[in-house]
Amino acid sequence: MSKRRSLATIGLAVIGVVTVAACGAAIVAVAVAPTMPGTLQPSRSAESVEVTEQEFVDERTVDVELVRDPGISLSVPLTGRITRFGCRPGASIASGGSFVSVDGRPLLTLATSMPLWRDLSIGDEGDDVKALQTELARLGYAVTADGDFGSASLAAVKALFTSIGDAAFDEPGLPVSRVMWAPTTTTVISTCIGSLGSSVSSGDALGTVQGIVSSAGITNLPSDLLSGARVLEVDGQVTSVNDDGTVTDPGALDLLSGMRGTTGAARDDGDGGAEQEPNQLAATFVLQTPVLVAALPPSSIYGVEGSEGCVRGDAVGVPVRIVGSQLGQSFVLFEGHVPKRVDVVPTGVPACR
User: Fold this and answer.
1) Which of 11, 98, 155, 320 has minimal CB crowding within 10 Å?
2) In this structure, how many other beta carbons lie within 10 angstroms of the beta carbon of residue 104?
3) Contact at 8 Å (CB) between 179 and 164?
4) Where residue 350 falls among pLDDT bands split at 50, 70, 90?
5) Which chain regions cross the lipid bilayer (predicted)?
């Protein structure tokens, strides 16, 4: 074999080894190439969404204007020295409680439809007795408002005085000198006149409270409300309201009269008096009975005119009414047929009206 042929043979052998090595490397590279997890693969946008309904109360924030009667004086019913005085402008006093004591005896705050004007004892009858019994029953005592002051009424009175700190109360009835009348079950104090340690005579004024709310109404009633009976939610309390936004129910007016957080509550001016503010409070105006709405992406609604629009569901155009929006969703009411799914971005949109 010649030297030239030997070199050629060696060259071919080297080329073969390199080729095989290269192919092996390629095979190894293919074998170890990582596969992208399914969760990291680019996702395809959903073409439709399922229609699910939820409750909707059409919540609106409104202002309620209160019309109050003139303020009422708090008169002490007996003579002596003030030994406890919890009067603070802007604070609330509740019927069935006590915020002042004279000569160590707590005075009972009572809100009755008729102010008590005489001492009551077993056998007394009248409208004042019935007014007392009505309030005792509201406070949770087992009393029938029949206008006849009997043993059940007396037992309730004794229990009530025990609850305000006078366990020694053992009167044969209810002395009017132990009662401070209040106009509403919860009353906001406007001014305080008395002071701890001062001497008072029967009939002296200890302060004044806000007058009773005689009427109330929403000042900024929305014009695009869903139809249906509504209620007002104020400071955690719910009260009735008329369709036109006015409040006329006596119980509702009584509740508003003593509502804490009203801008009409008196504000201490630093001299024991108070500076009166406008009688207005913030409230939430909601449907009494929720309605069912669907939450859809805004892109699914087309042909919008005012609050009316369309969606494409079950391959047909479906009319909807837009009633609200929140967090990138539109709340709609279906006008008739409720599809199972609607297109997120409808194409070839069909007419729906």
Assistant:
1) 11
2) 12
3) no
4) confident
5) none
Q: What is the DSSP string of 274-332?
A: EE----EEEEEEEESS-EEEEEE-GGG-EEEETTEEEEEETTEEEEEEEEEEETTEEEE
* Domains within the chain, CATH numbers bracketed: 60-66+213-287 (no CATH), 70-209 (1.10.101.10), 290-343 (no CATH)
- Give the three-class secondary structure for 169: coil
pLDDT tens-place string over residues 248-262:
998 898 888 877 544
Give the containing element (helix H, strand E) for 113: none
DSSP 3-state assignment of 10? helix
For residue 53, list its beta bridge partners: 294
More confident residue, 4 or 104: 104
Q: What is the pLDDT of residue 126?
A: 97
What Cα–Cα distance (Å) separates residue 178 from each residue in 78, 137, 155, 184? 7, 19, 16, 18
- Enclosing H/E stretch for 12: helix 3-32
